[in-house]
Specification:
By secondary structure, the protein is an alpha+beta fold. Helix content is about 30%, strand content about 25%.
Length: about 325
């Protein structure tokens, strides 16, 4: 296992690094990085809906889209980010989350913070979230990464993100700030974020057989910077051209919330997009591309999905629920 402390603190470079590790290293990877203030959105999210753009622009907060699913998160110099890349072996998403968050939970509990895994992909202390995790399947590998709110400015979390109230219906949740906490106040003895980073890296290099520190070479950095310039710092990747949909429906299901928009012309699907904080083992774009050009008709789309399991692309969602949302059925609410 290669263990890497990132030399970068710009979000475009650190997200580009993850793609570079997946493509160019055959070893398992563990890495840590800290970003300057930024917002990271999930692969399937609508940036315009998730981010308070007036505020982030005024504050110089950068926005980047990652490859993994899940929700939007705020990073700053008080937030430590970690990631594992390993051969997937076809493991279930929850099993992957549990396996790779165990070392983090053990370290935190050893330092006095009573941290636990909860729900779909969150880590909590005293019922408050300090870490959200996401994953991305790539060929025969899986990447799992997460945030660790150590001493972040929690006020900025609330100001930078637009929390969709539909996600929290019936949960009695009043604000983003009330749901999250920093790690530092829960430690038995105070630590700096650099000390905390070193403790985590020492634990990982000691636990995993063959784990060794790896310093990115000049060539590594140059290729990461090129990828950042070409993809991750571009408007096309982070925002893109969203069509004006003439049909848009929303579905809240057990694992999250999805929005499906369709632009139809002469009764056929010209554009289709799915937004949400979901995870999937396969790339949903494959399915959406196969639906373009079809008659905008439930029977026609259902037939096209024969042999396709939507749950492979959106964990926890059945084909029936997908169709109901797409066509405004009983489980969907028109937005």
């Amino acid at each position: 296992m290669k263990c890497i402390m990132s030399p970068f603190n710009r979000c475009f470079l650190n997200i580009a690094s993850e793609e570079y590790y997946l493509n160019c290293f055959d070893d398992d990877i563990f890495y840590l990085y800290i970003n300057a203030p930024c917002v990271i959105i999930g692969r399937h999210q609508n940036a315009y809906a998730e981010v308070n753009h007036d505020y982030v622009k005024k504050s110089g907060i950068e926005v980047v889209r990652r490859n993994s699913g899940g929700g939007a998160v705020y990073h700053d110099f008080g937030n430590l980010n970690y990631g594992f890349i390993t051969k997937s072996g076809g493991a279930d998403a929850r099993d992957v989350f549990l396996e790779f968050t165990k070392p983090i939970l053990r370290i935190l509990n050893d330092l006095g913070a009573r941290a636990v895994f909860s729900g779909r992909n969150d880590l909590l202390i005293d019922g408050k979230k300090f870490s959200g995790n996401a994953l991305y399947y790539f060929k025969n590998k899986v990447l799992i990464h997460g945030t660790l709110l150590f001493s972040s400015d929690l006020e900025q979390v609330s100001k930078s993100l637009n929390a969709d109230p539909r996600k929290f219906e019936g949960k009695g949740v009043k604000s983003v700030r009330s749901r999250v906490t920093n790690i530092l106040p829960h430690l038995t003895a105070p630590k700096t974020i650099d000390e905390f980073s070193s403790i985590i890296m020492e634990e990982i290099t000691g636990e995993f057989s063959g784990a060794r520190m790896y310093e990115l070479t000049k060539g590594d950095c140059e290729r990461i910077e090129a990828l950042s310039d070409k993809k991750y710092s571009t408007w096309e990747w982070n925002y893109g051209n969203s069509p004006d949909f003439n049909c848009r429906n929303t579905l809240k299901y057990d694992l999250g919330l999805i929005d499906i928009g369709v632009k139809a012309e002469a009764g056929t699907i010209k554009e289709i997009a799915v937004y949400g904080d979901f995870f999937g083992k396969k790339d949903l774009d494959e399915v959406l591309l196969s639906l373009k050009g079809l008659k905008f008709d439930e029977a026609a789309v259902s037939k096209a999905l024969d042999g396709v399991s939507i749950a492979d692309y959106i964990f926890g969602l059945s084909n029936e629920a997908f169709l109901n949302c797409l066509f405004g059925g009983p489980q969907a609410a028109i937005s």
